[in-house]
Amino acid sequence: MNFYPPPPTIQASLYVRIPDDIRCKDKESEWRGGFSRTFQNIFLEGPVYAASGDVYVVDIPYGRILRVTPSREVLVEAEWDGEPNGLAVDPDGKIAIADYKQGILTYDPTVRAIKPRLTRRNLERFKGPNDLIFDSKGNLYFTDQGQTGLTDPTGRVYRLSADGKLDTLLDNGPSPNGLVLSPDEKFLFVAMTRSNAVWRLPLHPDGTSSKAGLFFQSFGTSGPDGLAMDAEGSLF
């Protein structure tokens, strides 16, 4: 018996196809070498919409940001020695990057330059940042997933305040991945991919969190990855 109505079907449509001349057909990648299945010389993640109307996405194995213009032209916006995974637009219009290899970076579209934002916690390198999101006050929340999972539940969730203070909100996550804030910014939802779950973290006024709980649980070979929430608080 199910007391809830079935979820509505949302029909997706093709927005744009990455042109062949932008795909890295003859270029090897360390990241690609560890991938268990083949892919078409590109692997897209972390789409983000900018106020300009552009859509930015990352190409993980080849360390690139691609930009899709409002007219749906696809351009290589930036390229560096990294493995970018997530993007988020900060209050100044710059783009924060969660880079598995390099930490947290900043890309400035006005000058097309990338610089480090946060590459270490104290002297320690991150496990491998995955995704990130800003709140309305300019605080940055990001996941440090690395290769964590049920056999190594040490993934972390951090909060980098607008004044530069770094807080660890969670350090026992089995593969923290995508994350999203509730509309009132009182709760942070985090996808735990390799445990097939979404966790819910209450956020206190002092920036800390406690009493994290299991919000959603599924089963199978792969769990939730990216998260999004609409204005009514529905989680996608």
TrEMBL record:
Residues 45-235 form the SMP-30/Gluconolactonase/LRE-like region domain. Gene3D superfamilies: TolB, C-terminal domain. It comes from the Eukaryota. SUPFAM superfamilies: Calcium-dependent phosphotriesterase. It holds the Pfam family SGL. Transmembrane segments: none annotated. PANTHER family: BLR2277 PROTEIN, LIPOPROTEIN-RELATED. This is SMP-30/Gluconolactonase/LRE-like region domain-containing protein. It comes from Didymella heteroderae.
